[in-house]
Amino acid sequence: MADELDNSAEAHPSGAPWRNFYGRIKGKTLKPAQERDLDEVLPEVRLAHVSWEENHDRTPLDMDAVFSGQDVWLEVGFGGGEHVAAQALANPDVAFIACEPFVNGVAMLLGKIRREGITNIHVHPGDARDLFDVLPDQSISRAFLLYPDPWPKARHHRRRFVTPEHLEPLARVVKPGATFRVATDIPDYVRQALEEVPPAGFTWMAERADDWRTPWDDWHRTRYEAKAIREGRVPHYLTFTRNG
């Protein structure tokens, strides 16, 4: 497959513009319990009116109606859901949007929601760019990007989340003063994040090395971090604040 396709003159039958999506949508065969969670739990927690099929004119979400005035935190690419589930349990007064296109990861989070009785997570099982289309300006109080796909080859760096295609809409939807946390074990991802995130409207908050070497006080380790440490890679914890 070519790295890039010309999408400029084409549209999805639903009316949506074509967007290249790189990465896996589904992995190993799901267990029966995971299939049941997708059938039974996902409809209860799925964030509605995000897809083009439901929302052709991209009407912004009514945040008060959906989240009842709560602060809303966003995790982009939640993997197996370890972090967002722990954060939701620790912060019951906060509403969470958990975004992940990988079906197996969605199923893992749904299992945690069911077993733990979590009620404050809304799942978007799809592309974060579709979510950004319908989130109102300054509607997100905190955002997380934890161990994103590193796309290690240089020609693939434009696929990373820390590019203007993702950072500009992220900057639009987060509130002034909101925290944006990035965790990665890939030094070149750190380089690109530090180059790309500040111009998008954020300030890197580190003042000393320990600020990016030490996990946040409320950090919950993900399976990807555990694997990185087993394989000898060093985690980095970057904290940015949205400029006012």
Essential attributes:
alpha/beta, 244 residues, disordered N terminus, Rossmann fold, seven-stranded mixed beta sheet, single chain
What does this entry look like structurally?
The protein is of the alpha/beta class and 244 residues long. The chain is globular. The chain has a seven-stranded mixed β-sheet, sandwiched between helices. It has helices at 32-40, 42-45, 63-67, 82-90, 103-116, 128-134, 164-173, 187-196, 210-213, 223-230, and strands at 72-76, 95-99, 121-124, 140-146, 174-184, 202-204, 236-242. It has one domain (32-242): Rossmann fold. α7 links the parallel β4 (140-146) and β5 (174-184). Residues 1-11 have low confidence and may be disordered. The protein is built from ten helices and seven strands.
Morphology call: globular
CATH class: Alpha Beta
Going by CATH, the architecture would be 3-Layer(aba) Sandwich
Beta-strand residue fraction = 15-25%
- Which regions contain 5 or more consecutive residues with pLDDT less than 50? 1-11
The biggest beta sheet, please?
7 strands, mixed
Rg, rounded, reads 18 Å
Per the CATH scheme, the topology name is Rossmann fold
Q: CA-to-CA gap between the ends?
A: 42 Å
Number of helices: 10
Oligomer: single chain
Helical content class:
25-40%
Total domain modules: 1
Task: Spell out the CATH superfamily.
Answer: Vaccinia Virus protein VP39
Based on DSSP secondary structure assignment, what is the total number of beta strands? 7
> Taking all residues together, what is the mean pLDDT?
90
